[in-house]
Each structure stands twice: as C-alpha cells, then as structure tokens.
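[SOLVED] Need 3D model of a three-part complex

Original post:
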Amino acid sequence: MELKIKIICFIALLVSPIGAVKEFSEFHEELYIRPTSSGHVNTFFQFTTRWHYGDRENLHNTQLIPRPIAETLLLYDVKELHIGLTQGLWRYETFGYPVVDSAPGAEVRAWFAAENLTSADVDDQWTKLASTFSGILCASLNFIDKTNSVEPKYSFRPTFATGSKVNVPQFVRYATLPREIVCTENLTPWKKLLPCNSKQSFASLLNSGYVHNTNYHSLGMKMRTICESHNTNCILEFTETANMVYDPKLLGANGDFSLRRLFGQGLNGHCALAKSSKIYVNLDDQSYDLTPLPMYNTTSKRGGSTSTFGVYDIQRLDGDKLFNIAWIKSKNNKPSILLTPPPPLYAHRYILGHGQERGQIVTQITNKHYHALPIVFQENIPWFVPSYMHTLKLIVQPSNGVEYQIQPRVMHYIPGVQRVRPYHLELLFEIPAMSTVQISFDFDYIFLKWLEYPPDANHGHYLGSAIITTQLPIGRNYTAIPIDKHLFVDSFNATRSSYFLEIRTESLILSLPTPDFSMPYNVICLACTVVALAFGPIHSVATKRIVIEQKDGQPQSLKGKVLQKLFRRKQNNAGNSTKEVEQHEKLLFGQAAADISIRKN
Amino acid sequence: MDKSLLLLVALGGVTRYYLQNFHWIGERVEVSTPINSFKRVQEGVYLYENGIDPYLGDVVHELPVILVLLVRIFNSISNFVPLLYVLIDLMTATLLYKMAQQFVRSKLTEQKFESSEYAVGTEELQVQATDMNVVPRCVILAYLFNPLSLLSCAGLTSTVFSNFLIALTLYFLVKRHLLPCIVCLALETMRNLYPIVLIAPVILVFTQRSKNTFTSSISILALFASACFAITGFNYALINSWSFLDATLGFIFFYRDLQPNIGLFWYFFTEMFEHFRTMFLITFQMNATVLYLVPLSLKLRKEPLLLATVLIALMSIFRSYPSVGDVSFYLALLPLWRRCWKFMAHNFVVFCFFVVTLSMMPALWQLWIYSGSANANFYFGTTLAFSTGQIFLVTDLLFAHVKRDFCLRNGLKVYVDGKEAKIILE
Amino acid sequence: MEKSKGKASNEDIADGEDKYRLFASMAFMIVVIIVGVPMWWKTTEVYRVSLPSVDIMSLSDAPVEVSTKIAIFTFDKTRGALLVKELKEAYSNNDLWRPQFVQISPLEKALKTKTPAGLESILLKQEEIKAGDFIFFEWPKLQEEILLTTDRSALIRSDTSSSRIKQVINLLILQTHRIQQILNENHRQAVKTEAPQTEYDVVISILNPRPDIMDAKWNVRMAVETYIAPFLKEVSQISNYTLTTQWKYELPFEADLKQIRDNSKLGRHYALGENDLPHIITSIEKNLGVGITAKPAINLVVYITPCDIAPVHIYNRQNKQATRQSVDSFISPKWGGIIIANPPAEACYSYNTAQQPVQFYVNTNDVMQIMLYQLQKLLDINVEFNIDGVKTVALEQIAPRRWEYEAYIRRSAVMHITTASNTLQSLIKLLDNISYIVINDDVGDSINDAYKKLLLAKQSLAEGNLLAASDYARTAFVASEHAFFDASLLAQLYFPDEQKYAIYIPLFLPIMVPVITSFTMIRKLLTKLRNAKKEKIA
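Solution:
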C-alpha cells in the first residue's frame, strides 16, 4: 500500500528536528483572515503549544500545556488525538479548503500505540478517553462507544512518532456524534485550556455571542507526541483551532468589515507568554483596501499557485488601545474578478426515496482537476441503518460524455450489527479527470424498541458525514499545514510532491418510523388475549370429551337458562348420592337416559 | 397425472412468472420478512463472493448450504433465478397432489376395516371413492392459485424453499419413506426452527405398525437428532465458523429484528418493557412449539396428518417472522379434510376475516409509512385480526374433526329417549 | 342384544380415551406449571447475592478495642513497679484502651551509659518495641519532666508522676479525645471528619499573574522532588500521593489590596484582609484546572506577587499584620494552602524605576519549608500541645515524628473501621427497604470482602499490631465504598410492582384457569378408573 510507505518516510522527517534539544516549551498564537470568493470571510485562529518534555515522568510538571492534557498521556496510550466541534456546513466550492477540516457535530479520532497493546484494551481506553474529554470540553463525547466507533484502515494516517526501533502496534479509532450541538459551554472550557486568560491575547476576540452568529464555526483540538527514542526525548504538540465563516452582508455596511465588526471588539494585545502572535491577511482578493496597512507582505508559492499575505506582528505594536483592522471595498472598484477558481475536488451527499420503508444514500464526488485522482472514501453508517452492499454502485458521470460504471479497486466493508456495531465501508478507487463519481447504495428504515428512540423521536436520527481523502498534485486552494510542521506560517512555500487532502460531506438526517409511545399496556393486553384465544379451545379439545345433552332440555331464553343453571346446581347437590352411583355409567349412550334423568328429577 | 392437471400446473407457472415482473411484491412486509426476503439472500451472496463472512453482520439469515448453493446458481444461471423459484413452487404443488392421492387411498383402505363400527347413515362423513379424484385436485388448486402463494413466489421469498421442504416431508410421510422424510424435516428445522414440531406426526406414523412403540419412537428421535447434527456439521465445514447458528436459529428465537409482519411478535416486542422481554420471548416461543405439541398428538394420534396440518397452521400463526407464504401452505392442506367441512361452523366468518384484513394491510401500511396519516396501531390492529381469523380456522377444524369422529360412530343424529340430543364438549 | 355389543366397545374406547385425556391435561400442566413457573421466576427475579446481613448489622455491637505495649524503665526498680501499677489501675476499667504496661528491670549496662540515645538502644535490645508501642525511660539530668523524642520513646525525670505520664499517653500517644470523636460519629454527635482516601493528587500550582513583568525562574520539579516527595514517601502507609506541578498564568487575586505606607525600600506594602482569603480561594480554585482522575486533590498554591503590588502581607481582623517575613501563607483545611512569595524589595525597586520586566528567583528553601508545614497540617499528622514540663525534641529531618505518625495511623485505622461499618450497615438497611436493588456478584464480593477485612482489622487492633490493622481497615473501607457507589445497584429501580400484574394477567389468567380446573377433571377420572378396576375384580 503506497500510503504506508509515505508514513514511514515522513516519520523520519518528523524526528529529525528534535535532535538533543534541552527541555523547552513555546506558545504561538496565529490568526488568518481570508475573504472568500463568495464574499464570505473566513477567520482561522490557531494556538500552538509545543513542549519538549523529555521523558514520561516529566509530564507531571506542566507549564504552558494544560495539566489535563499531560495527564491524558500518562493515563492512556494515546499518541495522537483530534477533536472537532462544528456547527454549520463548510461549502468547498465557494470557501475553498479549510486549514483544518471537521465534520458537523462532534468528531473524535485517536491513535493509540504501545508495546503489547491489544485491540480490546484500546477499545476500553478509547471510551474512557472520550468520556474524559467530554468532561474537559463539556461536550457529550461520553456517548462514544463500540456502537458508533469504527477502525478505519485506509482513510487516516498517523502524524505522531513513537520513535521506537521495533514497530509497536498502532490502533486508530474514529467516531462522530452528528447530533451534538456546539455552544457556549464548549467555548469557555476550550478557552480555559489556553495558557493566557482570554482577556488579553487573540482569545479575547472569541466571544460566544459573536462566534455563534457565524454561518460556520468549528472548534478544534489536536494533540500529538513526537518521540525520538521510545518514551524519552519526546515533544508534545497541543494545538487549538477555531475556524469561522462570516457573512459580511449580515454584518451590514456594504460588504466592508473589520475585526471589531466580526468579533465585537478589537484585539486587546497579545499573550505575554506567546513566542509569536501574528495576524495573516490573505491579499489575493484585490477588491478590499486594508487600514492600517500590513507591517509587511509575504508571498507564498505552493504547488504551482501563488498567494500573498499581509502580516501584522502584534508583539511589535505598542500602546494598549484595542487594535483593529478594517477591510474597505476599494473606491476605484475594478470588477472584483474571481481569483480563486473552485477547488479541484468537492463532494455532496443526500438521501433518495420517499416514505419510511426503503431509501438510498447517494454521495457525489466531483473532480474538477485535469488528472485522475486516487480517492479513499469512508462511510461510518450507524447500526440503525441496515445497508445492502449488493446495491453498491460507482457511476462515473464525465462532464462531457456518457456515464459508465466502475468497480472500486479496494473495498473494506464490515457489516454492522443492530445495537452492537456500525456499518463501516471504505472504498479505494480512482476518480477520472473532469468528472463526477456517484456512489450509491440502498438501506432500510428499521424499527427500534420504543425506549431506544430519542425524546423527540420524530426529529429524526443523524448519519455522520462521509470522509473523502486524496492526494492532490497541486496546491490550489490548499492551506493545510504540512504534517511535519506545526504553525500556520509553515504552510507558506511548503511545496511537496503531493498534498494530503481530507474533505467531509454533509451529515444526513433520517426519520425512522415510530411506534405509538402511549400504547405499551394496550398492546400487551391485545396480543396476549389473542394468544390466549387459541389456548382455550385447543385445551378443551385435547382434554374434554363428547357427551350428549337433550336439545330441548332447557328453555332458550337467557333468563330461563340462568334460572335453570341455578335450579340444576341445587338439584345436583340434592341428588348427589344417586349421581355418584351413576357416575361410571355416564358415558354410555344407551344409558344416557340415566344421565338425563339425574338432571331432571 | 392427466392433461388437465398439467395444464393447471402450466397455468400456475405462467401466472407466477408473470407476477414476478412486479418487483414491489417482494418488498411488501406481508410477503417478505427479514428471514425470507430475496434482498437479504442477494446480500448474502454478494458478501460471500467478496470474501466477507456473511454472518458477521445481521443481514443474512440463510443456511450456509443454501447460500453456497445459491451462489453457484447465481454465477451459472443468474438470469433464470426467478424461473428456479417458479419451478420449485410448482414441484411443491405436484408433491402436495401426490401426497393427497396417497392420503385418500390409505383412508379408503382404513375405512374398509373400520366400516363395521360406523353408524348407519353416515356415508357423507366417510371418504368416498370420488374423493380419490376430487381431494387432490382441490389441494393442488388451492396451492397453485391461492393468491397468497402466488405473492410469496412472485416475491422470490425463500419461503418457497421451506414449503417445498415441508411438502417433501409430508410426501415421504404418507409414502412411509423414513430416512428422506427425516432428512428433509431436519434441514427445514435447521432453517426455520419451528418445523421441529413435525417430528410428532412422523413418530406417530412410523410407530403405528411397530410392536414396541416406545423404543422405535426413541430411535426415530435419535435419527432426527443425528440428522440435525450432521447438517450443522456440514454447514460448519462449509464456512468453518459457528456464526451461522446464531444468525439463523438465534435470530429467529431471540427476535432481533422488529420489522412489522403479519404475526403477533413485532409490535408486542417493540412496546415490551425490557424487564419482561426475556420472559415473554420464551413464553411466545413455547406457545409456538411445545405448548400444544403433546396434547394434540395424544388427541390426534389416529390422524397424524391432521396433526401435521394443525401443527403447521399453528406454527405459521405463532412463529416470529410469519409471511403469507406460510399461510398459503397450510390452507392448501385443508381440502384433505373435506369430510369435516360439514361441521365447520365459522367458515364464513374466517373467510371475511381473511379478505378484509389482507386487503386492509397494504392500505394502512401506505397510510402509516408513506403518507404518515395513520400510525403503527392501525397496522397492528389488522395483523391482530388476521391472526385471530387464522386461530378461528384452526380451532374450528379441530372441533369439526372431533364431531365427525363422534358422529361417524354414533350417527348424525343422536336420540335420547326419543328426543334429539345435541353434542357438547364437557 | 346389538346394544350391549355397542356398549362394550364404547366402554373400552372410552377408557382408552380417558387415559389419553388424562395424559393430555397433564402435559398441559407440565408445560404451564412445571416449566413455565420456574422460567417466570428465573427471568423476572431481581438478582441478589446472599449477604451476611445479620452479622453486618451486629458489627457495631462489638466495640473497637486497641491494645498497645507501653514499656517503662527506671533505674530504681520499685519506682518503676509503682508507676506501672498506678498506670495499670488508671486504665483498668477502660473499654477502649487495653494498654499493656511492662517494666524493664534495671540492668548494670544501663547504668554505665552516658547518653539517652545509648540508653535507649540498650533498652530496645532488651524489650522489643514495634509500631504503635511506646517506651518511657528515666534520665535523671533532665530539666523537663518529660521529653518526647522523634522516635517511639520519651525521657522522664526521676520525679515524674504517673499522672503526668498518663496525661502524655492520653493526649499525645493515644490521643483519646480524637478517637472518641471518631467513635461518636455513628451517634451523629461529634464533628464530622471524613476518613482519609487511599489516593490523593497533590497539585502544586505556581501562579504568575503578570508573566509580562515578572520573569519568574524556579525549577519546581527539583524543589518538589527534594522536599515534598521524600516526606510523602514517609507517610504513604495509609494513602499514596501523586505529585503534580503546574504553572498558571494571568490568574490574579480577586481581592482589594490596601496600600500601606511603611519605611521599607519600596516605601509601601499591600494589605490582604483576613476575611478576603475565602474569596481568593474560590476565585483561584475554579481556574486551577481539573484533574482527569477521580482522586481528591490537595492544592498547594505558590503565588508570585507581581512587583506592581508587591509585597503583599496578610492582615488579621484587628488590622495588624499577621506575619513579618517575606513569605506569607494560609491554609484552608481539606482544600489546601496558599503561599504568597513576595519578590525581594530591590528587584521590585528596579521595576518601579525602569518599567522593565524583572527576573525573580523564587527562594526554594523558604517556600518549601512552609509548604511542607502546610502539608503536614492538611494531612493532620502532627499534634500541637502545651503541657508545662512536657517538651519534644526539635525536628531535624523532613519525616514526621514516629509517635505522631503512628498515632495518625491508629486514628485513621479506627476511622476507616467506623466509616466502613456504617456504610455497610446503611447499605443493608437500604436493601431491606427497597426490593428492586440488584446485587451482582462483583458488588456482593466486595461487601463480603469488606466485612471480613473489618473483622480482621478489629482483631489485629485488639492484638496490638497496628500496621496490619490499618491495612485491613483501608481495604475494608475501599471495598465498602465501591459496593455502596456501584452503578449496577440501580439497574432496574424503575418498575413499580402493581403494574406487573397489568402485564401478567392478560396472558396468564386465561391460560391458568382451564389448567387449574382440569385438576378436578383429573381427580374424577382417576376415581372412575379405580372404580372400573374394582368392578373388573368383582
């Protein structure tokens, strides 16, 4: 597998920078602001803490890294961790690619590695880890368990280095909670993990009121360890990211905008502990004038595309009044031509079919590039969506020409089990140049036990988004940070042979048919009655015997019948003695008269 | 088998083949349940071909033997698979026909011996020579053109196989071929669990002539058990994992899939409280298997085939994933008891039940699932009514048999000192 | 004629028929009653392991008894005998303490010794003194009446009275009053002091509110490892402690500091009112960051005063400066302690003149001494007392005094015992009241284990081997807590009893009625068959 080889080489790449450095820890804060081609504004915060903690014992003595993070490393064998809390949808066609991509709702992904680590205790650690961070971030990550986690084989590649010569076993776990809603109680603890408090520093711009008014916002957290030799001489890298997309038109004032507009206040200085605190402004879109002008500009050539950035070094600012940058639509309004063409690859997903019986999940991946691209497609389908892989179809729709069907080169499918395991599908295939591949398969709407429905049962159940990974040959629209680096600024002039891209589709909502939640007792009564209905007759047929009785023996009227019953009982009591005598005769029809006679006398 | 019959069979075949063009039939919940739906068979085949253990997930519930067989067939004659289903169904019909013939023949000989005990004027209760011709015809007609069996075959459900296997069992039963009978029964038991009750009539039939009833019945049981084990072992050898046991028998017993069907289970266990789930699960499964087994086989020890009929009926009412295919099968067996019809009181009621509920089901399903204007209770109501109707039918048949038996010996009209008396159970 | 024939045939048919009817109804009964009822019982029962409920409830009947050996050595034999006799009398009718007083008979080697230490070593050879025991030995040229060493021994003067010795034993060695408090807890009288947990996080946080002006330099790891770690190692008999340190920045005191002029180099200092301290703790606590483990934390905070408000001193309610040195500190029991490390005046002076960030080297020794003291206070190991004529040898090493520490062990052993038995008893009471609580094997095991360990702990206390007792007591305590707080207890608490019948009746009533009635049928048939037999015989 080609991916594997790549991993090896880049680990070597990672380890080299450490060398025999003495213990250090540094903190960087960065803000990247980019007007998108659609007139939106993408602001991306990144707070990076890098700590060369040396040996494992030293994790007890934290300085810039928050204590819980260090303790996680002590408690679990986790080596790399990504957590994303996202609201809204990233539109690749218009926004381009984000620096850090994440799925709607909550998304967690972790790599574990240690000597003689088995998959079983990884499962155990994984759930514990998730609940730990649900405590740290006040998100309901504690719902992550075996029933919604998968073990991707091809989609992800590790970015950590255990640095041990013998290859220790590595395990990856991935889970999404698409129903999770991101709000203030996530932002506050997220900010608490920063070394500086949020009155100064870039974090002062992240005010819940404004963050949650954006079209898209995503809080991210990434942690990884890079060890030179096993468990000694290690670097812990802890990155917090906040990615937001604003619509200036909603902020008013004909598309002009400023830090104050976006964040509700200007920037209040920088964090005293930060080694660097810089704002980068993308200048490719010429239609804005900046005030104040950037301190200096840098141009970044990457993968054949060039873009210029204006840089503000906040640490060089003096005066303690709030710092503000304004984007003004330039007076000499040259037609603002679209400088950034749509990105080479994007995807959409939806559900087909009506009613609540059968449906079809369709994913469309479009390749606008003039070369074929290798694709790894991953679906993590919840257990309550039984899917049929014999209906799986990959149909290529060239932008010009007739559509045809292809087969995946590799298919990794683990069928799910109700209430136990999700359906996990990974496809490797090549998407031809300038064309769309449509991946589709059927599923059933199933019926759950009445207590398994969420409180608002008719709101529907969520399906997490699919993940599409590929290797881009060009760097157009590509802003992700190279794996062997850690700062946003490192993405400048970082030309590589290929660019590892991860994109996610929309998450889907599915409304399963619901029972009547008020019924349990009635249903139990009715069903049981019907069962009992069969028992009575069959029992009597099997155990009773036939006797004859005189037809006109009793009057037909109900009243009469009742009277007779009473009457007869009395009689029986009276004539008991005779009855006993006659007992064994009773059967015989010759003697049936006797029987009758008892009843009548 | 004369020309007209061949014609009928051909007609039945054509109808089935034509109906298979309507794919929605196979998607009706009444026709295809989680165990017998064609879609799941396809999935199984697909997974098997792609080297994924089909029993890893909980979509496939077919025996490995059948699955592998189907894989071969799919590969060789993928286009003729529907035709295969039709053929098997037709074979089932003809088997039933042969079985009926044999049955009537043996009845006639039986009567010769017993005729002395019969009361006078009970000719219409005795099997007539004409039945030789009429009963088998009714049977084959009832199977070929029963809309339910048509649907079941058109939906390509694996109930077709089940019916075929049970038909084989019955055929060998009346022909008194022990071994094949046992093998078919064992196979079907491993597929669907419930047919295990049919071992009772088998034992009754094959121990009738033996001196020591007990030992011979034990030996038959042993034979049956060993057959089951052999089949299990064979399946294990095919995929060398035991996962299929849980995927077939376990899935049936524990009722894991709550998809609605014409049975009693689905809504009951959707709405059940977790605390009582296990208890009611066991109760219902016992109700479908062992509860009536012994008493009925004691009562009907003289009529093994009636016993078989009743047991098949009961198990297709009370099984966890019933489908119309199962119903159609025991309906086709009713004509065998032509001579009891005289005493069946509720025919009309039952008929109405069937017609009304079966026509209501699709409508209410549409309302609930597609237009969302009805809810689950409506559909549950109809399935409940349908089961009730079937229960009436079975109990009625039983009563009828008892009365016929009685009247056959004591005349149609019983007189108690001059006045006509009536028959009651006490 | 014909009739009779028909009759005969009918009869034997009927008999055969009856037999089968009998079997049929029996079959029904077997399935419904013999199979069905046990199944119902098994599937719907609330699972409970059998527990020694009675024994557990009777735990509190047997009071805790502690026995320790107290050896006494005097040069004059008779005096020693007298002391022992008097002390024996003093403790004769005491249901808590069972001290064994032994006299070490004087030996000529002892007379030759020049130093108390030498004497002590000789005596220890003579009489074996293990954990929890104590020895008084005479040392004539002593100015105090009693001098307690850092080991398990005390020196007495030739004229020290037995009452004084008794006082020392009660107050310092056995600490009767505190043990009494603990034991009273089950009568809800005494002050609640909770039992020491088995695991603690000792979190040492260094607050630097103004990293921009204070460039604080301190190798915390080294300081902690040289001072705190060894001490904790010494006291880890009962609980084991994990040490973590962290730096916290930009976390100021949320209290109003009054500037007060004085004649120091800076010409002022800042006053922190005593009644502001609680607010400070609350404001700090919520920013110290939570540990991810469930262990309780002991917080030790070092606050580096920024030069613009330095130095800070704590003022008491009488508005007098509480302390005079450069380091102020205060503790809040159970939560932890705060140390205010003021930078040296000249450093801040340079800052005040030229507003440049100043380097500040924290004085490890000062801070750590205080921190150690605070830790001892928080763990509540060392005892303070003033009885005239009774002194203790000053500490020269980090570890606590042996007898102090062993008193602490004894205390917490007793506390663990009482807490554990209370927990178990209340759990048993709960089980008696609520029938729906599940006790699975795991919980059952830990309850039984706790019970056994409790007995062992009591026994070994009575036998006077302290360390074993404390081990047992601790494990019992842990097990009982685990049993009490296990989630599986509440597995099926939700289902009300009366609703059960609404679920059973629809199915089981209609089925039971015919089955039950068929009993009478069976009876009839049996009698009939018997009669038939009789007739055949007749």
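Edit: The radius of gyration of chain A is 35 Å.
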